[in-house]
Amino acid sequence: MRIHLSPDGPLDVPQTLARYRIWGEDPSNRLGDGVFRRVLALDGDLHGYAVRWAGPPDDARIMISVPGSRSSRVATAVSAEVGRLLFLEADVLGFYRAAKSDAVLQGLIAPFYGMRPTLAPTPFEMLVGAVTAQQVNLAFAVTTRGRLVRRFGRPVQVEGERLYAFPAPETLAKAKVRDLRRMQFSTRKAEYIIGLARLVARGELDFGRLATCPNEQVIAELTRIRGFGRWTAEWFLARALGRGDVCPAGDLAVRKCFAHFYARGRQPSERAIRRRAAAWGPHQNLAIHYLLAGLRRARAKAGGGT
């Protein structure tokens, strides 16, 4: 089965999906040689698919192949997931118009034209990844996450390449702390992931309902869960729910962005960051991701890596 998607507004697919290669290999989201491959879980079945693209950002075309499937239900689910991964609903043109009043953001449009912040395929996957990334560098986080996926995810061949479906909450709910400790998760992180999985498996954490709640209520509900603070909750709003009016001001990388671009190297307070970001209104999510990409680019030019 083949599916074609046309984005509304500019889309640079390689730059949008770059997060899946910058910090190391992700066995559930494989990007390489102009192809992105992943496994969709639907009603207990697994469907591997591959995403290819063509054309410049202003005329991008997305081609999806789902080998072995002819189901319209699968086609709808895959299209929705790819739409999330590429954040096809993002108001990129609106952000570009707003960015003209900010010299820093205006200067980042040309080098990153068409880049969108990829959304997490599922809220559960995003939160597990957030726990993995707490207080460690992202390369190590991707490594430990990869171990988790290979141990608890189901392998699937997608166009001859071996991928793993991200582990289901019901699977991780049955995991043992010692299993995750062997993967170099701390005891607390292992407990957080297993505890989260149990809440989702029992239906006590309803992502569908959470998606209808205002930002502060989402933050309040997530921060009641052991191991989840405002940092995780704000990234959940940005990367799982795609909310535009969110700035994870407590994130160290975000603070470094504001220090580099707006404060001459001095790290501003969270309050100062939120105040400046508020001026971007519904475009804060996009602005933050452009700043993060801009900082990586500046460091690479200076020989400091990502």
Q: Regarding CATH, which class of the largest domain?
A: Mainly Alpha
Largest sheet: 5 strands, antiparallel
Strand content: 5-15%
CATH superfamily of the largest domain: Hypothetical protein, domain 2
- Radius of gyration, CA atoms, in whole angstroms: 19 Å
What is the total tally of β strands? 7
Q: List the secondary-structure elements in sequence, H or E.
A: EHHEEEEHHHHHEEHHHHHHHHH
What helical percentage do the residues reach?
40-55%
Number of domains: 2
- For the record, the CATH architecture of the largest domain stands as Orthogonal Bundle
Biggest sheet strand line-up: 1-5-4-3-2
- What integer is the average pLDDT? 95
Shape: globular
Gap between N and C termini = 38 Å
CATH topology of the largest domain: Endonuclease III, domain 1
Task: Briefly note the structural class of the backbone.
Answer: alpha+beta
Written description of the protein model:
- A hairpin with a 2-residue loop joins strand 2 and strand 3.
- The model has no long low-confidence stretch (mean pLDDT 95).
- This protein is an alpha+beta fold and 306 residues long.
- Helix content is 48%, strand content 13%.
- It has 2 domains: 87 residues, 2-Layer Sandwich (TATA-Binding Protein), CATH 3.30.310; 218 residues, Orthogonal Bundle (Endonuclease III, domain 1), CATH 1.10.340.
Layout of SSEs?
Elements (H helix, E strand, L loop, with lengths): L1 E4 L7 H4 L2 H4 L6 E4 L2 E8 L2 E10 L6 E5 L6 H14 L6 H8 L3 H7 L13 H11 L4 H15 L2 E4 L2 E4 L4 H4 L4 H5 L5 H15 L5 H4 L4 H8 L7 H10 L12 H11 L7 H9 L5 H18 L5
Antiparallel strand pairs: 1-5, 2-3, 3-4, 4-5, 6-7
Helix pairs in contact: 5-16, 6-7, 6-10, 6-13, 12-13, 14-16
